[in-house]
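Q: Can someone sanity-check these two? First one:
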Amino acid sequence: MSFPSQKSLKIGIIGFGPFAQFLSKTMIKQGHSITATSRSDYTDLCTHLGISYFRDMNAFLESNNDVILLCTSILSLSQVIKSVPFHCLKQPTLFVDVLSVKEYPRDLMLQVLPHDSDVLCTHPMFGPESGKDGWKELTFMYDKVRIRNEVTCSSFLQIFATEGCKMMEMTCEEHDKLAARSQFLTHTVGRVLSEMEIEPTPIDTKTFQKLVEVKESTSRDSFDLFSGLFIHNRFAKEQLRNIELALETIKQQLFKRMNEELD
């Protein structure tokens, strides 16, 4: 995928937690300027990174950002976005989210944002751990929901294309269907293994070692993220039912075979 139009962007970030910090370092490296605001005070960190940090949301919105990146948690997005004083915006702005669900932020942004704001829904399928050695061949999903300023949108997408990401354009609905069968399923299996308190043993097979890795990887993410994947992806409920049905089917097959063998 080629994004020929590119310019240096002024990118404002709402929510400057670990993922936003991770993304901003690459954006700065590419020559983009960053402003940030967050519930917690990141003044010292932003000063160190060369980022303009605003405690006041009004001042943040008045700083003429080309792009405003929403890096909140899934569960806090509604509260955050509905509290933003959009009347302080001085120009039409591209709003971009990076949440792990897509229909929910899309619908919320279309409902709440000013009508002259552009909307780009994205999901970088990587994070600070998987992307610590670079983003080459890591998947970046996006959906151009409402785009009038193609140059700004293209320049933002170029950030990820330049780093070698596998650029994947798809609808928010298609993303959520696939994510329910992959990301949510993985997190659910990891949480089940965590509840079972599985640990390495002296006789582990390679397959079991992978299960331990899944448990440990998903346990590093918050339960808020996991519950957000369930609550705000309408396809996740079906997957949870499928897991329950599959487990019950296997259980019945095992007891049926046991009864046949022991008769």
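And here is the second, same format, sequence then tokens:
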Amino acid sequence: MHIPFLGPAVSAATAPARGVVSALTPRFRPGDLDDRDPDFMRELLPGLWLLVSAWYRPDIRGLENIPREGPVLVVGNHSGGTSSPEVFISQLAISTYFGVERQHFQLAHRMVLNSPLGWMLRRFGTIEADHGNAEQALDAGAVVTVFPGGDYEVFRPSWQSGRIDMGGRKGFLRLALAKGVPVVPMVSLGGQETALFLSRGEGLARLLRLDRSIRLKTLPVMLSLPFGLQVGPQPHLPLPVKVAMRFLPPVDLAERFGDDADVDEVYDALVAEMQAALTEMQGERRFPVLG
């Protein structure tokens, strides 16, 4: 039933919250490949890797599947809310395995680059998730890591931990096809156990128009340390979960699907391949958090 006066009432009730959101909206900062600082990375890498290893006890396999030279697009599933352990683990693992001289850039939401740690992430090669930035990085012959699921996948309920759910986002495939670069699927498990994620809060996000103001389609609800019940993409202290990660063999899209590849077909095949790997990893996991 349509109630004509309900729209203005809801708009008035949510106006203060929308005002706060508008005030907190970060300014756009284009990714600059020159911000990446190999000397800075080399200095901090051992200590950061030790910290991440102690907290997450990562089990990483398949790094040899990433080509040692030339552009490549690494495509990963996304988890763990704002903590996203697979982001830090993959960055440090790739830099450790290939050396900091092998250019590696990660695409991230603009809010990440404008966070208190944004300055350090930029020096480790984090750039804004923008098509132009990704093209520039691939043209430079770099490894580019993308998490297409973004906030939609990273805040999925914890009981969907073993599910690949990139929300049907296919821009990364169009980019790979246009540039003719191989795709290396990266699958991780454990991040969704860093807190108890209850809901994506998509309805709340639409109500507050976050999708239009700051490109967020979710306003997640979760139970986490140290604040308990949290609403919104807020920082939390992640539980020391064991994170498993697999880099699958590279996929030459043109060779496998042809020069006129159907993006929908490629997407379904890639997600199915990643899902099969994730399901196998989940079958090997004995206990939540402990691994």
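A (reply): Looked at the second one. Residues 269 and 275 are 10 Å apart (CA to CA). The two ends are 49 Å apart (CA to CA).
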